[in-house]
Model the fold of this input.
Amino acid sequence: MTRTLIQGATVITMDRQGVLPRADLLVTGDTITEIAPTIVADDAERIDATGCIVIPGLVNAHMHTWQTALRGVAANWTLPEYFRKMHAGLATVFTPEDLHIATLVGALNQLNCGTTTLVDWCHNNRTPAHNDAAIAALLESGIRAAFFHGTPKPDPKPGETPFWELPHPRAEVERLLREHQGRDLLSVHAAVLGPHYSTLEVAQHDFRMARELGVIASLHQGGGPARTPGGWLALEQEGLLGEQINIVHGHALDDAQLARFCELGMSFSAAAESEMSQGHGHPLTGRLRKLGRAPSLGVDLESVLSGDMLTQARVALGIQRSLDNVAFREAEGSIPPTSTITADEALAWVTVQGARMLRQEHRIGSLAAGKQADLVLIRADLINMQPLHDPVAAVVFQASLANIDSVMVAGRWKKRAGELVGVDLAPRLAALQASGRKIVAALGLK
Ligand SMILES: [Zn+2]
Done:
């Protein structure tokens, strides 16, 4: 079995060992076998990581990777514009090939930015061939992926059943589970409409389906009025809520609902930058914090913003501190004596909380013996990070893509010394560009 010994790094474990100022980390096969001040392993390949900070691989808990070829196209759109122009417009012209190249380059960019686990929330998949193309791309990228099978949201044509009245296609989820569940580093789940975007009957069907198939049901909550007001109560009365339900956004939930959902163990994913930009409202972070809970974070849309998860952590931290500071000033007439959110919390959102959202915290999201070897080497000896007083603060506030030196997923290097491993990028970027131009041109957008 391959053994890799990473030597002499500052290690942020996000686990019981905390932050180790100088440590070695031994990887055997796909697993971390030891983290200690000094490890002797003569048969292992040695990596000199002096000057580096090792962190757990980042978890991007929500992204529509199919929009990678449309980078920047939706940068100035609000949510209603986005629904009209993206879901009812651009999305409708995607072929399986378009989905493949967008998902492949999007996933490779995640690896490049230090993300080792990607929740691909795929809801532009009108045929099984679209699903197969997206999954093939995720497997090809080598990222640890959770494929959340969703459904498209086109404007209904005359005589057509609107998307919000269509139960989730269970047979297709079953096929994907049969063919792909557990294949390499892939897991399959369901991206459902939920009561905000569907009728009660559809939400009941979809939640039941997820429970029976043993998959996570993730849903968007918020952005305009709910299709089924009171739907959540009906779903709870049927016993359909629990740890397997993941709410994305969620601003319009009232305090009582939020408290109840936390009690039921449901998880929450915020896409802070996308939410701020498109008009959702403020991320749920602070309201969850009052209930002793925390969100995972996601990029959501590369058609709007950058795919870099450290940026997401920083943005989410900034908006919550700002909200808390303003609230304190309004109540007390002065600046608060200290900050609410710490850098440690922000790093947890993009590591351990993402792992929790996927119910995989025993395997990923932190560094400890027995866990999967998903990790990132950050070059902390560059001009933008020296001197290093507080490694966690340096990662959250100073590190950028320029510092992401190496990325390992399940014991295999996906990025080394600043370069993706084994990827011929030029033809893929050319294909992505051609796909993006074709899609945009089909709708007359320049
Ligand atoms: Zn989304």
User: Anything to note?
Assistant: The chain has a mean pLDDT of 96.
